[in-house]
Amino acid sequence: MTGRLRDLIVTSWYWPIVRDFDTEPAELLGVILTTLWGLWLLLPMQTFHSSVAYNALAVVPEWLLGSVLLVIGMHAGAALRDGRVSRRREAALSMFGGWFAIAAAFAWGDITNTGVVVYGVVAVAAGWVYLRLGILA
Length: 137
Fold this sequence. Notes:
Blueprint: H1 3-10, H2 15-18, H3 24-42, H4 62-82, H5 85-109, H6 115-136
Helix pairs in contact: 3-4, 4-5, 5-6
């Protein structure tokens, strides 16, 4: 992380609030959610055709998105178990990208869907983990 961005974050009003938070609980919840979503999409039923909220996600085959999420979740779990900050940052960045894209797809399909907020918060948490681990490194 560049020194300028680090200085901006460290001097912000919210830094004292999140400074002492461990990232492991957020990482573990992200691992569980991502892995379970991936496994769910790999089941033989068609999830994307069950609601209007999934319309934007339906352009990608469920098996493909499920496989990607499963790989991201397993990578994040292995990185968390390994403990190396660089691997955990990589996993957090990939998790941020994946969940941001899912939240954006929910917004595209149905902006009033609660998935926009829920998966947006998951993306923000993954982004926070990425930034927090970058400051610690």
